[in-house]
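=== RUN LOG ===
request id: a7f3
mode: sequence -> structure
chains: 1
length: 121
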Amino acid sequence: MPKTKKDWAELHDVHYNTLGVWEKNKVFKERWELGVKGMAQSPERTQALLDALYTKGVSGDVKSAELYLKATGFMQQIQTVNINNTSSVKELSDDELQAMILEISQKKQPNITISKIEEEE
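=== RESULT ===
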């Protein structure tokens, strides 16, 4: 894709001044704007963008991987999960922990962020 109007004119063997004449033509301008809108919604362009995100994601770019997974529906926006329990996690049995994990996992694709909490001494 040419970067400037002058480059586009040379590529299409049109004089540069002709572009200005076209841009002032109401019918041309309306059709050009429709064409631009159509390009923005093009499945080919969307697929090319997804392919680029995928390539960067598999090569280690975490943000690209996240955007790809969100765009393809494999990763939902972050959901906050609050677990209120009067017991300390240390006091929960394996069965209780399993039940909590199962309950959370059955919700619609939750995104669970686990962070280390410093224990009081």
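=== NOTES ===
The radius of gyration is 27 Å.
The mean pLDDT is 77.
=== END ===
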